[in-house]
Structures are given as structure tokens and as C-alpha cells.
Amino acid sequence: EPEVTQTPSHQVTQMGQEVILRCVPISNHLYFYWYRQILGQKVEFLVSFYNNEISEKSEIFDDQFSVERPDGSNFTLKIRSTKLEDSAMYFCASSVPTGGRGLNTGELFFGEGSRLTVL
Amino acid sequence: DAKTTQPPSMDCAEGRAANLPCNHSTISGNEYVYWYRQIHSQGPQYIIHGLKNNETNEMASLIITEDRKSSTLILPHATLRDTAVYYCTQGGKLIFGQGTELSVKP
């Protein structure tokens, strides 16, 4: 069964450092997403990406964050100058939307997450 | 932002049906309702989705009210492995609410 894969599974970094989290979405999917989950809290939407551009982003996704699909298979989340409060589990997801572009996301397939610890 | 509301927690006896409600009063006419669950800190897992009609798959059933402002996810014979946080979402909004923490007890 196809799956979304994420690397690294766990990364420890120093405050102020840059971090890149990588995701390989399911090959025929068209929409890509990043979510985060701070320990003990709910899953929070960060950004969605379609046709090589951001289609929607939350207020959490500020200038510190960026996403890229550099080579047609990987989908990356870059966090510049990490802060303590960026410590969280980051989930990548992908989907094939239904019901018209952007209206219905279709079933989201999630990866197992990358745990980021900022010291 | 679209907002769904769910009870924060529920208990269910093993083998009994678990009925998880969700209010989605701001849903638009062609938005689907999706349900996901998250077991421990794993990636969320898709369960089921629907538009107007009730739906059933190998995991669960989904009952949507006629006005589409609420729905109920039914796990017909809950097992201990169904203990998880269950989230309902509206179509293209990509927003997870607080979810319902379901505890299935022996």
C-alpha cells in the first residue's frame, strides 16, 4: 500500500539553527500539506501546496517557515532560526482532491511524523 | 475559519457501539464531512467521509443529519485498539478541531 514517508523521524537542534524536514508524498497525489502537533495538543494545520505554490496557510505559518517541492518527489518544510516553541511533531500529508479544486481535500494520507526538539 | 465542535472525551465499553457526535453548522452545500483518528502520537488516519447520505465502510458508519449541520461516527463494536482521538473536519478547510478522546474500556 502506498504511503507517505518522512525524514528524519527525530531531529534535535539548537535554538536559532535552520531545520529542513523532508517528506515523500504518494506519487499520484496533487495536494501536499504540513501539520504540526505540540505535545499534548491538537493537530494544527500549517500549509497546503498545489501546483508548485502555496494554496492556503494558517497564521502559524509565518516568514520563519517555507515549503518547497524541489525535485517532483520530495516536499520539504524549512524552519529558519528555530525557537523553543517550534518543538513539536510535524506531519506531512498528501491527497487527491475531490469535488473541485480546493473545495474538498479528499482523503489525506499522513506520514508518521518528524519530531523536532529545539534546545 | 470553519469550526467543528466535538465533546472532549467519551468512554465506551469494549464490544459496544461508540457514537461520536460532531457539529459542523458552517458547512457549505458541497463540502464533505471527513473523520480521522489519531492513535497515541502516530499520524492521523482517515476513517470515512460523506456528503449527504449515510456511509459505511469496514471501519465505521457515518450518519449525517438532513440539514447537514451535524454528524455521528459510529464504531459498531469498539475494541481496545479503537482508543484514540477522533477528529471531524469540513471538506476543504483542512482544520482539525479539538477532537474527542475516546477511551474504550474492558
Summarize the structure in words.
The complex is a heterodimer of chains A (119) and B (106). Chain A is an all-beta fold. Chain A contains no helices and eleven strands. In chain A, strands 2, 4, 5, 6, 9, 10 and 11 form a seven-stranded mixed beta sheet that branches. Chain A is globular and about 40 Å long. Chain B is 0% helix and 45% strand. Chain B is built from no helices and nine strands.
What is the topology?
The complex is a heterodimer of chains A (119) and B (106).
Chain A: E1 5-7, E2 10-13, E3 19-24, E4 31-37, E5 44-50, E6 53-57, E7 65-68, E8 75-79, E9 88-95, E10 109-110, E11 114-118
Parallel strand pairs in A: 2-11
Antiparallel strand pairs in A: 1-3, 3-8, 4-5, 4-9, 5-6, 7-8, 9-10, 9-11
Chain B: E1 9-13, E2 18-23, E3 33-38, E4 45-50, E5 55-56, E6 61-64, E7 70-75, E8 84-90, E9 100-105
Parallel strand pairs in B: 1-9
Antiparallel strand pairs in B: 2-7, 3-4, 3-8, 5-6, 6-7, 8-9
Rg of chain A (CA only)? 14 Å
| Pattern of helices and strands of chain A | EEEEEEEEEEE
User: Strand fraction band of chain A?
Assistant: over 45%
Biggest protein-protein contact in the assembly: A-B, 28 and 23 residues
Number of helices of chain A: 0
Going by helix content, strand content and strand pairing, the class of chain B is mainly beta
* Coarse structural class of chain A: mainly beta
The counted number of beta strands of chain A is 11
Beta-strand proportion of chain B: over 45%
Give the rounded overall mean pLDDT of chain B: 91
Helix % of chain B is: under 10%
How far apart the termini of chain B lie comes to 38 Å
Order of helical and strand elements of chain B: EEEEEEEEE
Keywords for this entry:
heterodimer; A: 119 residues; mainly beta; seven-stranded mixed beta sheet; four-stranded antiparallel beta sheet; 0% helix; globular; B: 106 residues; five-stranded mixed beta sheet
